[in-house]
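Q&A FORM
Asked by: J.P.
Topic: structure of Multidrug resistance protein MdtG

PROVIDED:
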Amino acid sequence: MKTALWLYLFLFLAFFDLHAQYPVLTPFAISLGAGPTFIGWMMGMYSLTHLPGNLLAGVLVDRNGSRRYIVFSLVAAGAILLLQAHVQLPWHLLMLRAASGFVLAFLSPACMTLLASLSSDATEQGKYMSGHGIVHTLASVVSPAAGAFIVAKAGYSGTFTTLGWLLIATGIMAFFSVPAHSRHILKPLSSAQSTLKVPDKPSIPAKDDDLVSKRYYLLPFFVSCSQGVLFFELPLSQTGSNSILSTGILLSLLSLGALVTLSMLFLNRLSPGGRIAAALLGMAISFFALASFHRIPTAAILFVLGAAKGVLFPAMASLFISLGGPGRMGRTFSMQSIAMSLGAFAGPVAAGQLRSFVSPYFIAFILLMVALLLLPPKNTGKLSNLTSKWNGRAA
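REPLIED BY: S.T.
REPLY: Here is the structure written out as tokens.
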């Protein structure tokens, strides 16, 4: 538990730092002379360079543990932010965002693997993942508004410098506090134990199991696409002298909605498949409302959208834990991060290209409905087979 508390602290500081940039980056790029299409590519390039980092992280985290990669991601990302404070041209910002995307690609697989390895009980793992989501959301509740406030007081250069030093300090703290060999906390079953467990495993044809498992990796792709669309379009849709502050407040309301559902720990007792389906539907309806019902306050829609996200992400984490198992969680979360990186690249790029023809929010709605349709029907047995090991009660 002590390791989890330390990790939650570092995650809070890291997520605070990263989310504080969301309402700032688009106006900063515009101040450098960038247009909507270039901004879409800039945001997408950050996610595209996640891919090589995710591919490396999956193998390296399983082999060497999480600590060194958590420290590397935080310190390197902080150094890049210090350089970003002195950017003069849009292309400089694009290159630094690409570099930042690569170094931060190691952070999520390393943290998720460390948290999942702290227990072998499904309920406890679900609680750790919910804790990860709560910490993430707490940081994202206050950080967008805080980032906008810092910009108003210190300007763009002062904001990036402050956030950069905060990341570096967090990385140094992680070096002295995170266990060096966290990968050994959860060990694979011995041969004798695995023999005893064989009769309890559901008899799933290998081809069907692999097919459904690969299908589930489309979920983070489409979800990340929709998030990329939101982070691209929301700052551009805000006008006036207080546009940065209003964007920060709206993103904080989004995170506040997620915090409400993440705090409902009893949801961990429900199967991941049902939670995923309900959350996808809620997110899709929210994006449709953003695209079509302009009389509904944007703040209210974003709160509901955040509540759906708070249900979705712990459920997806629990599902991928069941797909990975001991010794392969780093690779599993790496594949999940790759899918999210591809989605975060495709979302803003598509929104930037199609913004003059169709509302980007409607694109996000279509993507989420496709993700919902791709879920295996419950009556086929595939969805229940994948989650048959799920135990909603404490062991």
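FOLLOW-UP: The radius of gyration is 20 Å.
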